[in-house]
Amino acid sequence: MAEVTGAPNGKPRFSRILLKLSGEALAPAGGSGIDLDVLAQFASEIKEVVDLGVQIALVIGAGNFMRGSDYQARGMDRSTADQMGMLAIVINSLALQNALEQCGVPTRVLSAIEIQAVCEPYIRRRALRHMEKGRVVICAAGTGNPYFTTDTAASLRAMEVGAEVILKASHTVDGVYDRDPMREPDAKRFDRLTYRDVLQQNLKVMDSTAIAMCMDNRMPIIVFNLRKRGNIRKAVMGEPIGTWVESGPQP
Predict the structure, then answer these.
(1) What is the pTM of this model?
(2) Which of 142, 165, 176, 229 has its CA 20 to 30 A from that of 242?
């Protein structure tokens, strides 16, 4: 498996990335909604990466507002619950766009469901053009379809825009573990895994559809802790943080 090492001459290892953020990371402690101080911190860290010349596409979840699966479990129609989740993602995307632009980072929200009064529709060529111009592209509303998670949306958009890696930023853990480290302190953290390891051991990296898509298209994933300042930049630079998921050695 490839070594995770920094690029030479202090340059970023990756020039185009897909950053997957947890919506829950935006919530105030013990509550729901958006903590503007946390949002500003994330925007500042993303700006550091933009200033390196890295092109960024971004997908954010909506767990700080709602999860469609929770509403489905209480009797709501799954399609309706997922559509509500997509709208919540748009809210988070607009908030993050505002925070980034306050930092001086040009940003565009492109939504998989058309809401032209507040954001552009997602069109692959338009997303690529924005990125080429140095704008952060926030891909909102998931895939635009029910039954697909934001993990799957992140994998899909990463392929479409030609990202070199998916950076999955966790708000709770610093990588992938064999068990839940929040409940079992002796859980083992992995430095490297293959996609097949993740699927066969049912490890909580991304959902199985997203992992299978990454495996089929050889898209590496780095899972790391978002709460530690500077980790997004470290991941982009190729420093050995978190857990690296990719294909095994080739025959």
Answers:
(1) 0.93
(2) 142
